[in-house]
Write a structure and sequence with these properties.
The protein is an alpha/beta fold. Helix content is 34%, strand content 25%. It has one domain: Vaccinia Virus protein VP39 (Rossmann fold, 3-Layer(aba) Sandwich). Helix 6 crosses helix 7. The longest helix is centred in the first third of the chain and has 14 residues. The N and C termini lie far apart (54 Å).
Length: 204
């Protein structure tokens, strides 16, 4: 069994679980064939599921900054992935998206050992992200830990997003393997939001 086949076998239960998540939170897909941006996607296990659920003509762009995943991405045939930093969206994506999603995005501040200081770039990321969302777009986030869940709420409120739902995920995604063995990838919490109101006013 080659690397890709071995990997796909290991993450089958994760994909089954996330498929149920999509059905639960997006039961009535009225805008098929839309544009979707998947941030911090890792090896984009969501790719085939998003295309299946939202339609084959869906334009999906997945973004991750881990160049070390390129070989596995090629083996898996992940066509939507661009290697790039979410802090530099202008360099990697164009136009506006109907759905922006991020599975288990690590939202807490990052420690830079080289500079011996903490960087908290996530508020700026989500403020910038709103420029790439249509006026009626949906932001869909899943978080692993409770502290990240509350951190997401704090950031989105600061950036002016309108939070429509925040809850413990009722769907169990039975996997702890998403590209880096041992990484905890439980989709434990869910937040659904819409872009800031001022963005909607400018686009009307």
């Amino acid at each position: 069994m080659d690397g890709a086949q071995h990997y796909l076998k290991r993450i089958a239960s994760e994909q089954d679980g996330f498929w149920q998540v999509l059905i639960n939170y997006f039961p009535n897909v009225c805008n098929k064939n839309s544009r979707i941006l998947d941030i911090c996607c890792g090896v984009a296990n969501e790719e085939p599921l998003l295309v299946r659920h939202f339609g084959k003509k869906t334009e999906l762009i997945s973004l991750d900054n881990n160049k070390g995943l390129e070989s596995l991405l090629n083996e898996l045939g992940r066509k939507s992935v661009k290697i790039g930093d979410v802090r530099e969206l202008d360099r990697h994506v164009k136009g506006k998206f109907n759905l922006v999603m991020g599975r288990n995005v690590p939202l807490n501040p990052n420690y830079d050992a080289f500079r011996d200081r903490v960087f908290d770039y996530w508020p700026d990321v989500f403020e910038d992200l709103s420029r790439f969302m249509t006026s009626d777009a949906t932001l869909f986030l899943t978080l692993v830990r409770e502290d990240e869940f509350y951190r997401a709420e704090e950031i989105l409120n600061w950036a002016g997003y309108r939070i429509r739902l925040k809850e413990i995920n009722p769907i169990i995604v039975p996997s702890d393997y998403i590209g880096i063995q041992g990484a905890d990838t439980k989709d434990s919490y869910v937040i659904i939001a819409q872009p800031p109101l001022q963005l909607r006013l400018f686009q009307c």
